[in-house]
Amino acid sequence: SCFGYPLSIFFIIINEFCERFSYYGMRAVLVLYFKYFLQWDDNLSTAIYHTFVALCYLTPILGALVADSWLGKFKTIVSLSIVYTIGQAIMSVSSINDLTDHNRDGSPDNVSVHIALSMIGLILIALGTGGIKPCVSAFGGDQFEDDQEKQRTRFFSIFYLSINAGSLLSTIITPILRAQECGIHTKQRCYPLAFGVPAALMALSLVVFITGSSMYKKVQPQGNIMIQVSKCIGFAIKNRFQHRSKEFPKREHWLDWASEKYDKRLIAQTKMVLKVLFLYIPLPMFWALFDQQGSRWTLQATTMDGNFVAIQIQPDQMQTVNPILIVIMVPVVDAVVYPLIKKCKINFTPLRKITVGMFLASLAFVAAALVQVQIDKTLPVFPAAGQSQIKIINLGTDRATVSFESQLQSVNVTPMESTGYMTFETSQLHSLKITSGNRTLTKPFDWPGGNRHTLAVKNTVTDIVAELLFDNVTSKPEEGNNLIRFISNLSDTINVTMGDTSFGTLNNLLSASSYHVFPGGRKDEIMVIRNSTSCSVTSDAFGFGSAYTIVINECSGNTLNVTYSEDIPPNTVHMAWQIPQYFILTCAEVVFSVTGLEFSYSQAPSNMKAVLQAGWLLTVAVGNIIVLIVAGASKLSEQWAEYVLFAALLLAVCVIFAVMAYFYTYIDPNEIEAQLDEEEKKQVKKDSDVYEKQAEADSQM
């Protein structure tokens, strides 16, 4: 032992820290991996994410059955940890871009291979993490003797702390690893590293756990109480169905129909458990909202500004707000909020706390909807299939006027300025008439609809020069990246580079490069080579999610003169605006989750805790399935409307739960079990008296 604790528990705590780091680290970047690497849309990414989470909370029942009925906790943890580690390793391999990028163009040539590997990896991870979930904490509890109740209680506190520490650190670190660029042939977001580190931590977790093998107290499997409860319920239903005619008298409770086969104690305990499980029915709706932190809320963060002064926050790092607030809020609520409510003489029962938690979660999604409305206001409008958008840049020293057919509008553009994008019906747009100074030029327009174009105009000494450029941008840059291109305002040939990216050669006046992707929030050096002379300047900071056209006006000596034209505005809604919704949801979690487990344990017999734990985990799984059903069935085009829908559904469920809670009668399982003990003693005494009388009668004969 060490400090009065079994030495073996230190291996278990380290094992749990590494495993939770592995799980939450992988899960933190998962939805962005689906969206940006596998190129799935938001809805499919969300659907697969929640399917995976649901599977992670369904498999604990399987793990508990295997451990209690067959392998025992130690062998179950080791076996499924191996499966878990293999799954994490496969996920890391699946995200290697160069695995199928044979033409080295920066994108996988066979995405199906990556999808297949990802799905295999996720299934193995779900089986591993879910299977060991009910075993590790119980295995830790087995290490203590009966007289070490105080140490056992403290162990569970440290165990829970290791879970949160692993979760917090991994949610900070893995998004940073993902944001790096790596690759053999082409540089991409480093998903192999973001998945590889959790895989390494899971392997370490397994090694640490096996290292302590000789020190563990290994309790042999003694059968699973869930199987007994299921058999009792099944027999009661079957027996009641077989005796459904009126000639058989009714019984006080439908479970009493199991009395022919099962003892009175098991039936009474099952009644208590079912009473609590009935209250669980509305709870999955809470988890349907809560687990969207890792999907919809993370995707929402990708459209926001993550620049916190000198620190750039990744969208998936916003999930760390929850564990940070949990560490702060749990002691504050226990030490300050609840005592204040008690002083106000408000009977804040556990079921009322759960109801308040549901209401707060609903409120958090209203806050998310309000943030989404503000984000939507900043999003650019792109042309529909039958429309075209045109933007004008005047690169000359004279004012330019552009007329779009006689029946359409005319636009005046001052020197070295640009307009925003103007939308036209493509069928009405046949030519553009450009007037500058005393000259006029007509440009035909024969482009298909659904595209954006930039008209670059310059009135030179001899004539008007105009180029209609095809922008080839149909959506706002994702992941906070920026799109940058260059237009030459020089008659000489120039070569342009920005940072490590070459934009190639611009051969003549108004020639333009294609757009290139740059990470958001940084400045890069722009270098231009003109007639063997190089000149450079440091670019402006472009923000996040923007697109810019940079005009090269002059390159002489060491001076480079450029102007910037904004094609797509950067993200302007700051990620800090997500903090209120995270705060409200964390408050909801504190009063819902902690209270829910506490209430469940207080209302169930001591040997039925595992059944309620399985039921609680099942509500999380069902909640994630609800996300799939609601998001798939709603067909809402606006994300804010989906947030409001989920908020409304939870509010309705909250009202139903409040009614159920109002009619619930609290019980004391210990008192009921004491009564059962007393009845059993009386029955034993009665049976003993009958036996003695029978024996006495037999002796007299």
From TrEMBL:
GO terms for cellular component: apical plasma membrane. Keywords: Cell membrane, Glycoprotein, Membrane, Peptide transport, Protein transport, Symport, Transmembrane, Transmembrane helix, Transport. InterPro entries: MFS_trans_sf, Oligopep_transport, POT_fam, PTR2_symporter_CS. Gene3D superfamilies: MFS general substrate transporter like domains (1.20.1250.20). GO terms for molecular function: oligopeptide transmembrane transporter activity; symporter activity. It comes from the Eukaryota. Residues 682-701 are annotated as: Disordered. It is a multi-pass membrane protein. The chain crosses the membrane at residues 47-67, 74-91, 111-132, 153-173, 193-216, 272-290, 324-341, 353-373, 610-631, 643-664. One of its GO terms (biological process) is protein transport. It is found in: Apical cell membrane; Membrane. The keyword Transport applies. It catalyses: glycyl-L-proline(out) + H(+)(out) = glycyl-L-proline(in) + H(+)(in); L-alanyl-L-prolylglycine(out) + H(+)(out) = L-alanyl-L-prolylglycine(in) + H(+)(in); L-tyrosylglycine(out) + H(+)(out) = L-tyrosylglycine(in) + H(+)(in); glycyl-sarcosine(out) + H(+)(out) = glycyl-sarcosine(in) + H(+)(in). Electrogenic proton-coupled amino-acid transporter that transports oligopeptides of 2 to 4 amino acids with a preference for dipeptides. Transports neutral and monovalently charged peptides with a proton to peptide stoichiometry of 1:1 or 2:1. Primarily responsible for the absorption of dietary di- and tripeptides from the small intestinal lumen. Mediates transepithelial transport of muramyl and N-formylated bacterial dipeptides contributing to recognition of pathogenic bacteria by the mucosal immune system. This is Solute carrier family 15 member 1. It comes from Ciconia maguari.
